[in-house]
């Protein structure tokens, strides 16, 4: 596949797809990057970071032993860290961690096929210092953390408790005599478990523990704790620390365990922005809202929506390009084998992935802007927007991670057997994203948090009180009765809100009926939780549909007609897909008729056909470089079979023609001598 100048040619099918694309790919790239200037900066950063030879591994990571994998990940993390420190700061000092942090995150994928052991340092340790420390504490810890002298993680979860933070058992008891906290793990179940980088990498961590002073427990609070010697890296006396062992994914993250045996830390190592312990042990609460110490989790939930949108874009890019290259079966006897992308079922599997990647990215951008507003409010002492934002970020984290994981797995299915190869990168993308459904708040648990807020909002609507923006629709749909059906995009979004309102109303009725039978409110709630999760899902789906539709319209106001058309097709596809997926709900809560359902299906299939010629252009517009995609099936040039063979030949088993196990076991077995 090289021309006579040695330049590798692009697969002919892919080249033809690109030639037939109806729009200028760069225009959509600019939209997704938030403007042409952002694209230029991103590309500049990618250009000078992704040329390094450290990117090319002679032996694929997945062929290494767990220890070698970890060591390779540390090596690359340090080189990546140095690169960030030395070069990327030129792009605006600390600002690099602001506007360009998403770019850093993208580039990191070229360095690590799995996870960097330093991810938690930059992703949670540093943000927690920013969010939970006083200015004085920040000036002590931040420079050391950013220069990587102090390397940290976030150790909250314990063997016995992850979800129920109030149930954590690690204690931090204040001793006024020495002005120290004594950290202790009273039981096996109180051992910290899971923190990324804790096993072998970090020398500090943020430990969430029950604060005791003057004989009273004041609940969980965060503390900065040094756990290893800075010179020798040996665990300090009183610390028991190690790695938790192999997992479905995250295998280079050295997730760890940690226990304390009456381990002492200075008073000022308590993160004191939201609560303080005075020298004499007096507890001073500064957090009027009460849940400000959960701030890092809220921040990460916001980040995760973007994270999974990007990973879904990677999977869609791989699967769509592969589907344009792969030919299989025949549609009519004797005809040439079609590209598998020409099967309508394949389009059904894949185009929703492209649309969902857009939907989640636009929703994530909107969520980020909303979050910035909440942070500004908090800086001015206003916390009124927190309950709504907690409900919103919880459900968006739950639904985005769940949708992305399911669709990434669908991308793998759509690549047949080759999708099962580690070298396709789909298994690693999946194993990474499926964890996001659990960490930082399990799916069900977070949807139930949103449901709590929705039920309260319903009660407020009943009482004629004003509602906050994301639930203001409840006033409109408050009266019983079916939502009128209208098959326009706006109509489908309204119907989605109508379904959510109908489900919330049904939950309220169920809870009240159960309470009337003599059950406590908690028991009635518990018996209704299946419906409550479904109601929160419906609410979240309506929000995503609404934000995606309106943001896509807003963003494309000045776009060329062709870009506007294809973006409109994608949003309409997303809305029709979910209307059809939730047709039972629409039949129950809206006035949709059987003929309307037939029309919805027909329109959906028409959209698949309309999007088909632009599918490769749409994934090219994600503009994800080959080094970041890391996939034999998804590279830009489409040299799928050559790359599969090249990677197979790198397998250590192919380094010698005969493996020693032949002489040790097979031959004796064959000769009856075993
Ligand atoms: C070189 C390296 C490469 C570099 C790359 C560079 C780029 C860096 C950037 C990367 C950024 C991101 C990457 C992401 C990846 C990060 C990896 C993360 C790994 C995982 C980490 C973790 O999992 S940490 C542990 C997380 N744990 C959880 O999430 C636990 C979940 N549980 C809870 O949150 C709570 O226990 C729960 C909310 C379920 C209940 O809390 P509880 O105190 O019991 O409260 P309730 O009694 O139920 O409710 C009381 C009221 O409080 C309200 N409320 C609860 N939570 C909040 C909140 N957070 N905010 C506001 N309000 C809250 C609740 O609504 C109740 O209110 P009501 O009025 O009484 O109804
Ligand atoms: C890859 C990975 C990385 C992680 N990294 C970190 C880290 O760096 N630092 C850290 O502190 N933690 C980390 N965690 C831990 C993570 O935050 C927890 O695993 C997560 O919050 C879920 O808690 P759990 O494990 O206790 O699950 P559980 O709460 O035990 O959940 C088990 C099941 O019970 C259900 N359940 C629990 N409570 C309720 C309820 N109230 N109502 C209904 N159903 C319920 C859940 O829905 C789930 O189905 C990580 C986890 C993973 C998988």
UniProtKB/TrEMBL annotation:
Task: Domain (Acyl-CoA oxidase C-terminal): give its ranges.
Answer: 490-671
Per the Swiss-Prot or TrEMBL record, the active site comprises 440 (proton acceptor)
Any Pfam family from its record, for instance, is: ACOX_C_alpha1
Q: Name one GO molecular function term.
A: acyl-CoA oxidase activity
Keyword terms of this UniProt record: FAD, Fatty acid metabolism, Flavoprotein, Lipid metabolism, Oxidoreductase, Peroxisome
Asked whether the keyword Oxidoreductase is assigned, the reply is: yes
Q: Where is the Acyl-CoA oxidase C-alpha1 domain?
A: 294-455
Instruction: Tell me the Gene Ontology biological-process terms attached to this UniProt entry.
Output: fatty acid beta-oxidation using acyl-CoA oxidase; lipid homeostasis
At the top level, the lineage of the source is Eukaryota
Asked whether the UniProt record includes Ribosomal protein among its keywords, one would answer no
Q: Where is the Acyl-coenzyme A oxidase N-terminal domain?
A: 24-151
To which protein family does this belong?
A: Belongs to the acyl-CoA oxidase family.
Q: What is this protein called?
A: Acyl-coenzyme A oxidase
């Amino acid at each position: 596949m090289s021309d006579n100048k040695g330049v590798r040619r692009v697969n002919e099918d892919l080249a033809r797809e690109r030639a037939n694309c109806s729009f200028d790919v760069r225009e959509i790239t600019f939209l997704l990057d938030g403007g042409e200037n952002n694209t230029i900066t991103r590309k500049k950063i990618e250009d000078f970071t992704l040329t390094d030879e450290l990117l090319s591994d002679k032996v694929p990571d997945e062929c290494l032993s767990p220890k070698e994998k970890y060591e390779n990940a540390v090596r690359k993390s340090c080189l990546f860290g140095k690169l960030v420190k030395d070069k990327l700061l030129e792009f605006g000092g600390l600002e690099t961690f602001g506007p360009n942090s998403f770019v850093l995150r993208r580039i990191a994928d070229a360095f690590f096929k799995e996870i960097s052991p330093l991810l938690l340092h930059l992703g949670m340790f540093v943000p927690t210092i920013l969010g939970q420390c006083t200015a004085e504490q920040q000036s002590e810890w931040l420079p050391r953390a950013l220069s990587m002298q102090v390397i940290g993680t976030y150790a909250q979860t314990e063997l016995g408790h992850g979800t129920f933070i109030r149930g954590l058992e690690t204690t931090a008891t204040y001793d006024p005599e020495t002005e120290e906290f004594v950290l202790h793990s009273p039981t096996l179940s109180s051992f910290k478990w899971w923190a990324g980088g804790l096993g072998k990498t970090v020398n500090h961590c943020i430990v969430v523990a029950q604060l005791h002073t003057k004989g009273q427990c004041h609940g969980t609070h965060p503390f900065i704790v040094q756990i290893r010697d800075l010179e020798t890296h040996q665990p300090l006396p009183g610390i028991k620390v190690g790695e938790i062992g192999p997992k479905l994914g995250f295998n280079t993250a050295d997730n760890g365990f940690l226990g304390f045996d009456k381990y002492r830390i200075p008073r000022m190592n308590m993160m004191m922005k939201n609560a303080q312990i005075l020298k004499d042990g007096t507890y001073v609460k500064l957090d009027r809202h009460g849940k400000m110490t959960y701030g890092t989790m809220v921040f990460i939930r916001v980040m995760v929506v973007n994270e999974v949108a990007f990973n879904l874009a990677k999977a869609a890019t791989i699967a769509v390009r592969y589907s344009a290259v792969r030919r299989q079966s025949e549609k009519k006897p004797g005809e040439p084998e079609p590209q598998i992308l020409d099967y309508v079922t394949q389009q059904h599997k894949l185009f929703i992935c492209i649309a969902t990647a857009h939907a989640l990215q636009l929703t994530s951008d909107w969520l980020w802007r909303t979050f910035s507003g909440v942070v500004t409010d908090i800086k001015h002492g206003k916390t009124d927007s927190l309950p709504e934002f907690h409900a919103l970020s919880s459900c968006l984290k739950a639904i985005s991670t769940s949708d992305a994981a399911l669709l990434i797995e669908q991308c793998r299915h759509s690549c047949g057997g080759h999708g099962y190869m580690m070298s396709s990168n789909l298994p690693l993308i999946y194993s990474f994203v499926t964890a996001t459904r659990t960490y930082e708040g399990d799916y069900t648990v977070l949807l139930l948090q949103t449901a709590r807020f929705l039920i309260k909002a319903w009660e407020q609507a009943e009482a004629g009180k004003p509602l906050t923006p994301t639930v203001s629709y409840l006033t409109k749909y408050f009266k019983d009765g079916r939502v009128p059906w209208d098959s326009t995009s706006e109509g489908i979004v309204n119907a989605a809100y109508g379904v959510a309102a109908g489900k919330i109303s049904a939950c309220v009725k169920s809870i009240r009926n159960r309470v009337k039978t003599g059950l406590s409110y908690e028991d009635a709630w518990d018996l209704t939780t299946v419906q409550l999760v479904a109601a929160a899902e419906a609410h979240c789906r309506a929000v995503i549909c609404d934000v995606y539709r309106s943001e896509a319209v807003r963003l494309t106001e000045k776009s060329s007609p062709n870009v506007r058309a294809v973006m409109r097709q994608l949003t309409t596809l997303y809305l029709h897909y979910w209307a059809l997926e939730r047709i039972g709900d629409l039949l129950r809560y809206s006035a949709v008729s059987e003929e309307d359902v037939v029309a919805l299906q027909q329109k959906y299939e028409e959209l698949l056909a309309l999007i088909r010629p632009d599918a490769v252009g749409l994934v090219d517009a994600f503009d994800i470089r080959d080094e970041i995609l890391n996939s034999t099936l998804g590279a830009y040039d489409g040299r799928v079979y050559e790359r599969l063979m090249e990677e197979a030949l790198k397998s250590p088993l192919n380094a010698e023609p005969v493996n020693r196990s032949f002489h040790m076991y097979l031959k004796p077995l064959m000769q009856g001598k075993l």
